[in-house]
Each structure stands twice: as C-alpha cells, then as structure tokens.
Design a protein that fits this description.
alpha+beta; OB fold (Dihydrolipoamide Acetyltransferase, E2P); 3 domains
Length: 490
C-alpha cells in the first residue's frame, strides 16, 4: 500500500503537469500579493519551498518576477486628504444609490505626480447633465485615500482634454436605453429592475441587493460565468440549426465579445469573458482544454493587467467559486450517487414512465446539491471574512433559484429576438417572463422564517482563509480519484 505522503506528492505532480496555466497564475498572484498586501513574505516563502519540493523551476522564476512586479506597482504613500491637479481617464460610468440619494459613479485611472492608479468619482449634481465619460479630463480637486488601496477624487472643475476617448459614456447610454425598454414591456417594475441588473451588471437597487444577500444569492446579481454560460448555450443551440461548426464558433466569439463590451470590465466579467473566449478558440482549433487551465489564463491576465485587482471582493468571490466548482463538483457528485443513483440511458429506457420522471428529478437534485456544496465549501471562510455572516438559506435557495433564473433569462432573450422580428409574439414572451420573474422575486423577498438562520463571526482573518484553502487543496489531492492516470491506492 502506498503511503499517504507519496499519494499526495504523486497526485500533486500530476495535477500541476495537467494544469500549468493555473500553476503560473498562482505564482503571479502570490508573488504580487506580498509587496502590495503583506508586510512579511511568509506566503511567498511557503510557496517557494512548495515549488522547490516539486522541482517546478519555471514557476520559481515567475514567482520572483511577480514579486518585483508587485514592488513596481505599489501605490503612492500619500496623505489621507490633499489638494492636487490630475488627469482622470474614465473607464466605467454607472448609476449608484446611497442611503440618502442617487448619484453617478465614475471609475477610471487618475494620473498624478505620484503615479497612475485606479480612482472613483461620485457625481451628485444634475445627473441628466453630467460630464460625458467619453473623454479624459484635467481636474483640480481633493484626493481622498479610503484605505491602503482605494482612492476617491472630489473634483472642483472638469476640463475636457482633446484627442482623448472612452467607451464608458456610450456603454452607459446603451444600458439606460435597454433598462427603459424592459420597464416599458415588463409590467412589474421590480422584475424589470432585476432583469436589467442581471443583464447589464449595474445593480443600483439597494433593496434588491439586501434581499439576495439575505438568502445567499448575491452572486446571482453579479455578471459572471453563469450569465456568459446562458448566453453561449442559448446562442449555440439556435445557431447550430443553420451554421457550420466554424461559423457558429466565430459568431459566438463575436457575441460574447460584444456582450463584454456592452457590460464593461470588472474582475468577474473579465474572468468570464476570457474563459469563454479561450474555450471557444480551443474548440475552433480542436485543442480542448480544462476548466482549471481556462481559470489560470484568466487569473494570470487580470493579475498582469492590474496586480491590485486581487484585493477586489468580486475578484476573490468569482475566482474562488469557480475553483471550488471545478475541483469539488465531481467529488460530491460521485458521493451523492449513493443517494441518487446514476443510470445508463439503456437502464433509463427500461424503467416505467413514472420512474423515468422521478429519475430526472433525482439527477437534477444530485447535480444541484453537488454544485452548491462545491461552491460553498470554497467560499465559506471568505464570506465570513468579508461579511461576518453566512446565510444557511443559501444552501436551499441555490438548489433551485439559479435554474429558474436561467429559464427567466432565456425567455427574455427569446422575447428580445421576437421584439426585432415579430413584436406581437414578443409581447407573449414578455408577459411569461414578467410572471416567472415576479414569482422568483417573491420567493426570495419572503423566505421561510423558520429556517432563516445564519452563521456569524468576526474572528476569521486573512491567514485563516489562506490556511483553510491550503488544507482544502490537500484534501482534494488526498481524496480525488487516483485511478485516473495515477494508479490505485493499493
């Protein structure tokens, strides 16, 4: 019988050989994180010895290069508040609602004497006559440092700079017109607001955020692989009816890219677009890749583009949920086959009709439970670290709500297509979409109080989260199926 350490080393070695993109991306992440977020290089040192143990020398070189890259991208050590003159280049404009008023939130990069870094501007004046986010501005105002890696600028004047441009204003105007379209054709204002939030990525309704976070569904509101997956699946099914494989893939590439341009850039959106784009390219050239390598490509790209992005909560939740899903879904699904047996197609046909329907329901719940457990086992400490509470209702609601939301979005896509081709039919689909979405929102807004419990603690720290993820990864190497390419345990 092989010993436990030998099994773990064998599994780890094989794992990194199969997923080099993820290995390189993690070296980039850990390397840049030390100078930007940690006072001591403990995590980088541990990762160095881990790489050295498995003789992963290219990754060791990349780790040291990433540490140097992190030092080069340290933000300026400025005072908490000071008057400066700077150039602001907007990259995103979206509605934002505070507890007291509505405003516009400009996000972009501020070029100052200290360097260039991400910055936000809150605009609270006449929103309909705001400075267009289609160009850069020379500004005089107050720079506020919110924390170690977050800046806000309060401009006193906006001086447009010629020969500069940005898609932020066009994107904002297109989203506003799309929201108006939904409000016009969906009788329920809440349903229209929800579907607009899902499709545009701008969630400016505070009550909607509260209701979804209360039942552990806040991830649904953020544009992610869930939304890109629905778009690809829907378009793929429709396009295969009249296009060849190559034509379908090219059309899908254009579709996901246009959607990415429409919703704008954020860590979760960028990850989803890169993963979807890379996956479609691999299908086009007949070079299939794994989900973890796709995740690694997206992770590496975002770290190189902006090493500070790893401090973004959306970035952390997005990548970690995907990591947990890819790693642990198959493990949970296999274990749950003891409760919900998996049958072959031949065995299924031999069953009575009623048992066939029962099997489909059991298979659905097996997959839904596996998905929910895989995602939450990875996110559990991170959610407690950031929000100090973890709603247990999320385990229940994540079993069926994402499925019904998928149907709702698909119906909306059908309605929008018929809106262009034959409006009378579109009205029928708008009505069905409105009804289903209203019912979903009612279930979310009024959860059963008898099981409305949460786990709460403020004791979770960053080292605890990192340690938990390390132990979780060791658990995967220990209990993953060793018969695949590795031989048996005995």
């Amino acid at each position: 019988m092989k010993s436990f350490p030998n099994i773990q080393i064998s599994n780890s070695t094989h794992f990194w050989k199969e997923h080099p993109a993820l290995l390189y991306a993690l070296s980039l992440l850990i390397g840049t994180s030390y100078p930007l977020f940690f006072s001591l290089p403990i995590l980088a040192i541990l990762w160095f010895f881990y790489l050295l143990t498995f003789k992963l020398y290219p990754s060791i070189f990349l780790l040291f290069a990433a540490i140097g890259y992190g030092f080069l991208n340290q933000l300026p050590d400025t005072a908490k508040e000071q008057e400066i003159k700077a150039i602001f280049s907007p990259s995103k404009l979206q509605p934002h609602q505070t507890p007291f008023q509505k405003e516009l939130l400009y996000q972009g990069f501020l070029q100052t004497k200290f360097g260039t870094f991400p910055c936000s501007i809150h605009y609270r004046k006449n929103l309909s006559d705001h400075p267009p986010a289609s160009q850069s501005y020379l500004m005089q105002g107050t720079l506020l440092r919110n924390d170690t890696n977050s800046f806000t600028f309060k401009p006193k004047e906006w001086i447009p700079l010629k020969n500069t441009w940005s898609l932020a204003e066009l994107r904002y105007q297109m989203k506003e017109k799309f929201k108006d379209l939904l409000k016009k054709h969906l009788p329920s204002r809440k349903a229209a607001t929800f579907l607009a939030s899902l499709t545009t990525g701008d969630v400016d309704d505070r009550m909607l955020r509260y209701e979804f976070s209360r039942v552990g569904l806040q991830h649904i509101l953020a544009i992610s692989g869930f939304h890109f997956g629905i778009l690809i699946a829907f378009c793929s099914y429709a396009l295969q009816l009249f296009l060849s494989k190559s034509q379908k893939i090219v059309t899908l590439l254009l579709t996901v890219t246009l959607y990415y341009i429409f919703v704008g850039s954020s860590p979760a959106i960028e990850r989803s677009w890169i993963a979807a784009f890379t996956y479609l390219i691999s299908q086009w050239i007949n070079r299939p890749t794994s989900g973890l390598n796709l995740l690694g490509v997206a992770l590496g790209f975002e770290i190189i583009k902006d090493p500070w992005v790893s401090s973004n909560i959306g970035f952390q939740l997005s990548f970690l949920s995907c990591f947990g899903l890819i790693l642990f879904y198959s493990l949970f699904e296999k274990k749950l086959q003891n409760l919900f047996p998996k049958r072959s197609f031949k065995e299924l046909l031999s069953l009575p009709r009623l048992q066939q329907h029962g099997y489909f329901f059991s298979a659905f719940f097996r997959k839904a439970i596996s998905l929910t457990l895989a995602v939450n086992i990875a996110l559990f400490p991170l959610i407690l670290f950031h929000f100090q509470t973890f709603p247990l209702l999320g385990f229940l609601y994540n079993l069926f709500i994402p499925f019904f939301i998928t149907i709702s979005i698909s119906l909306l896509l059908i309605a929008l297509i018929f809106h262009l081709l034959f409006p009378p039919i579109a009205h029928c689909f708008y009505a069905i979409t409105n009804f289903l979405t209203q019912e979903i929102l009612e279930i979310i807004a009024y959860p059963p109080l008898a099981i409305d419990f949460s786990i709460g603690t403020s004791l979770i720290s960053r080292p605890i989260v990192i340690g938990y993820l390390f132990v979780l990864t060791l658990f995967y190497f220990r209990f993953k199926d060793p018969s695949k390419n590795l031989g048996s345990f005995g």
